[in-house]
Amino acid sequence: MGGISSTAAGRGLGLVFRALKLVRPGRPIHPSGVRLVGTLERFPPSEPSGIGWIDKGGTDHVCGRFSRSIGLPSRFPDILGLALRLGGPGGTSDILLASTGAAVPGRFLLVPLFSATAATLGSLMPYRGTRGPILLAARTVVPGSGQNLPGIQEPAGRLPADPAGFRKALLDKTWVLQLGWARPAGRWIPFGTLTLTLDPLQDDAGLRFDPLHHELPDAGTYGWARRLREPSYSTARQ
Q: Cα(182)–Cα(132) distance, rounded to whole angstroms?
């Protein structure tokens, strides 16, 4: 995407956010959510991605938020969002994931859903690594799939998309997701397991995520992607 077109598209998105902000001064999108805490265990993938944070493996403490993007009533499907904040020696890093398809071209399209369990939660925008652009995605590890972690009690049924139902279904359980990376048109390669539980501190009024200000370690952002996102992010931060 060229500089002029990405700048124009970014300004257009910024105007949409400004209009939404008149209706929802606090959060123009993802107005209601569920605060989460947990751990991300990373392991070296079968193929290097070109981003050291992925390729070296390691452990991250995670603060997260699950939400519905538009905030429609629960009888309607909505675009689902999972925001993650990773804490480490170098500071904090934010990752924003939304319900997309898994294959091409679906991984570049937002998909409204009724259930978090069925969602592929993708980064939509590529990260810049030393080997080229990559995408991130997370999927729920379904109980009985053979990928369950020992000693962890996972939700027996589906996790609803509406915050109240999601919170009730998770309650004293653990949400387990597998993380993977892919080239824009490549296969998904697993590199980590994310375990999330409800955060006892459920007040998320001051919890904000911004992957442009809190970048992923060892990963860059493409100029066109920054120009596309910055106007709307700036409006949301105000």
A: 11
Distances (CA, A) of 77 to 61, 69, 74, 139, 157: 31, 10, 7, 18, 18
Q: Which token pair is 145?
A: 């799939």
Cβ atoms of residues 167 and 146 within 8 Å: no
Locus of tokens 């697993």: 190
pLDDT confidence of residue 71: 78
pLDDT, tens digit (0-9, with 9 covering 90-100), for 22-44: 455 556 565 778 999 999 999 99
The CATH architecture one would assign to domain 30-222 is: Beta Barrel (2.40)
Q: What is the pLDDT of residue 51?
A: 96
